[in-house]
Write a structure and sequence with these properties.
It contains 5 helices and 26 strands. By secondary structure, the protein is mostly beta strands. The chain folds into 3 domains: 2-24 and 44-50 and 135-297, no CATH class; 61-125, no CATH class; 302-468, Sandwich (Immunoglobulin-like). The strands form 5 sheets. Strands 1, 8, 9, 10, 11, 12, 13, 14 and 15 form a 9-stranded antiparallel β-sheet that branches. Strand 4 and strand 5 (95-100) form a beta hairpin. The N and C termini lie far apart (53 Å).
């Protein structure tokens, strides 16, 4: 009997895990079959509103020594954000290194600044330095099995020390039923295959933790609140773990319905458990809880964008240009890099493809940063591959801050606009997937085919593109 209940619990956990991966805004998760009392509600989702939490530090004209207490950043980002600042010195590995807005871009180095780093800042005049310390995201709470149906609001607050979430369903809960709220956390979104989902929860470091338990009132509503502190005690959950990177982690909240509320000790157990106890089988119909609502916070530096038809090819009508395809791209920005993942599902099986990143850094004021005749600071080949039998291909790439991208780096990779990434968090990123026709049989020829635009394999079609702006 115990083995059978453990098997059912494992199945139910899988339902949460894989359900979460489907409950993404704009996608249609599979119907769980559970009625939430709002089947006819069809409200379009509003765009999430995110504001930065920050602290201003008064700087005097001349030199100012501070211990950095904000989120990770770079010297170039600090200088780009305040015209009164002329130089930043950073103490790391027992030595001081400097960066200055007065230097040509080719002589500058983006210095990583983390919490606790010693920073010496030179200001031309007295000014305030804005130090980002976190963010607050207000977003929609939606039906778990239909992300287009908005039923309430959720707020995700992040700081270096932890995170908190508040969920306020409208009147969509079943009055008198017990409900729980759960944290679903991917601490390092760059380890996710695409947009973080249930399949990625098996990666060490990701977790599902208890948040709060409430009984819906007569109006069918309740307010759920929970906080987690980095390094502090963590609640239990079906996938134990901890919140380790509150600023950039991808966080989902999930609200579960446990059926009519019990009394006494049974109620305490009911609103603190992942599953409804088997003795409560009559009240829920099958003895287990189901997911009814969810909300998503992808972290302040991660964006997911649909791939769209870019250029008509023989098999694509011209009027289809601009239409969304069954594919997506994910860009994650850190203080030191831009990480790119593309999953394209509408390619030609067996054809060779390449990905090109076109990057504009509007916060970089120096016009010399732009390539000749180009609005881009950097344009280059970043990945390549061959579409499988189903026409699907996944690309992964990383562009690192401070790495000089030159016209000929000896690898054969083509660079259209040489340059350097100095402001990953403020850069506009355009990604273009190019079709090079049937893949070459020879491995060396295939490598060249996927890295260049000036060989016998081109001119190439540009089937898909996506945009990521901060």
């Amino acid at each position: 009997m115990h083995r059978f209940r453990l098997f059912l619990l494992t199945m139910a956990m899988g339902a949460l895990v894989f359900g979460v991966s489907l409950a993404l805004p704009g996608q249609q998760p599979a119907d769980t079959g559970a009625s939430t009392g709002a089947d006819s509600l069809t409200v379009a989702q509003a765009a999430p509103a995110e504001t930065a939490n920050s602290t201003d530090v008064a700087l005097a004209a001349g030199g100012n020594l501070i211990g950095w207490f904000g989120v990770d950043t770079t010297s170039t980002a600090i200088l780009a954000g305040n015209a009164e600042l002329t130089a930043v010195w950073v103490f790391a590995a027992g030595a001081w290194s400097s960066d200055s807005a007065l230097l040509p871009d080719g002589l500058r180095t983006a210095l990583l600044i983390s919490r606790g780093t010693g920073v010496f800042i030179v200001a031309a005049a007295a000014t305030d330095l804005t130090v980002p310390t976190g963010s607050v995201l207000s977003t929609d709470l939606f039906l778990f099995n239909d992300a287009t149906v908005v039923v309430g609001a959720a707020t995700f607050t992040r700081s270096l020390d932890g995170a908190s979430i508040t969920a306020s369903p409208g009147d969509d809960l079943i009055a008198g039923n017990a409900h729980t709220m759960w944290w679903v956390i991917w601490n390092d979104p760059t380890q996710c295959a695409v947009a973080c989902g249930g399949a990625d929860l098996g990666v060490p470091g990701n977790t599902v933790l208890f948040g709060d338990g409430q009984i819906a009132n007569a109006a069918g509503t309740a307010t759920f609140r929970s906080s987690l502190t980095v390094g502090g005690p963590m609640p239990g959950g079906p996938i134990p773990g901890a919140l380790t990177d509150p600023i950039t982690a991808t966080i989902h909240l999930v609200i579960r319905d446990h059926g009519p509320s019990l009394v006494g000790d049974a109620l305490i157990a009911q609103i603190g458990s992942f599953e409804t106890d088997a003795t409560d089988a009559e009240s829920t119909g099958d003895g287990f809880a189901w997911d009814v609502q969810a909300a998503i916070s992808d972290g302040s530096n991660t964006t997911v964008s649909s791939l769209e038809v870019f250029q008509s090819a023989a098999e694509v009508a011209a009027e289809n240009i601009g239409e969304e395809t069954d594919g997506e791209s994910t860009v994650t920005r850190t203080a030191t890099a831009i990480q790119i993942t593309i999953v394209d599902r509408e390619l030609i099986a067996g054809n060779a493809y390449s990905v090109w990143a076109l990057i504009d850094q509007p916060n970089v004021d120096n016009p010399s940063a732009h390539g000749p005749g180009s609005v881009f600071d950097l344009a280059m080949n970043v990945a390549g591959g061959v579409a499988d039998a189903d026409g699907v291909l996944t690309f992964n790439a990383t562009i690192t801050v401070g790495e000089a991208v030159v016209a000929d780096d000896g690898t054969g990779r083509q660079v259209l606009v040489p340059g350097t990434l100095v402001d990953p968090t403020g850069a506009n990123v355009r990604l273009v997937v190019k079709d090079h026709g049937p893949s070459a049989a020879d491995e060396a020829a295939l490598d060249i085919q996927m890295m260049r635009l000036d060989g016998p394999e081109c001119p190439c079609a540009d089937p898909h593109q996506s945009f990521h702006n901060p």
